[in-house]
Amino acid sequence: MRRPKLLLLGFVLVFVASALVSACAKSEPGSNLQASDLVTLQGVTFDPNAIMTPAVFQDSIAYDATAIQNFLERTPYARPSFLATYQSNGVRASDGLYKAATANRINPFVLIARAEELQGLIGTQFYPFPPSRVEYVFRCGCTGDSNCDPALAGFDRQADCLARNLRQNFDQVTANGATAGGWGVGKQSVSLDNQKVTPADGSTAALYQYDPTVGVGQGGLWLFWNIWQNYADFLSYSPPPGGTTQGAWIGDACTANAMCTAPNAQCATNFPGGMCIVPCTEGCPSDPSHPASFCADFGQQGGYCLPKCNVGVPGACRTGYDCRAIYQFGSNQSVAANVCVKSQSG
What we know:
This protein is of the alpha+beta class. It is 32% helix and 12% strand. It folds into 2 domains: 29-243; 257-342, no CATH class.
């Protein structure tokens, strides 16, 4: 008659153990970090008004997929990250990071430092528990602890989502002078931890839009900055010479022609937030690090290269634009493609 009691006791112990594991899974932010993540390099000083320069923020070609893979295999923590062998949706972590970075013109190590800051993924050698630490690392598509969109599951999709959000934030500053949350260059705002901040550049404003917390010594953008500094030192990273960046490509926000770097590009300032376009008669400039574009027919105005998009995909086009089918210039309405065009309701 004692066997049922033993079974019950075993069940209780398993339940308690499971509860303890769940409690650990919901530990406070920062508990997944490595000790070195909280140690600041000698000779560098944190400035909450200047987290990262635009040149560094947009240096999407600094490291290719091979270099990123090498970093994941040999991290600053003297051991490989589990991300070196991890795949999501059939995509290696290094390839997903590179694709997200180049497609959105964001430094891949901005995404990598974020992954460490939020969930300690770079310093983790084995796949962590719970899976949401990886599959929804940047909380894209999540409205609660357990309410997340399956379409955005996977490290590769999370990396792309974060890169798109940061690019959108930066473009909003360029086009409108501030992000949707009011973070702008030279504009004083108050962070969630009650710190007065005046961003010195668009990249710093974009980062505060994503995480409006200073968090000196413990979290927020201080922690992101500190991890980035450590990684840059480990990599012997050098910013682009002269502080230059790739500039604005076809479809990007702009305020002047000089900002548009595609061949023969011009800034259409009559479009919402400005848009870099290229006059065309058939083909459009292409670059593997930028989204594809299409020579759209604007009737008597001629043809202009506009960015291609996918109908029905949230955020496929910038604010003020719709993803619609447009005929190709010179095709006599026989060829069409979906491109980002000025919203009909705007």
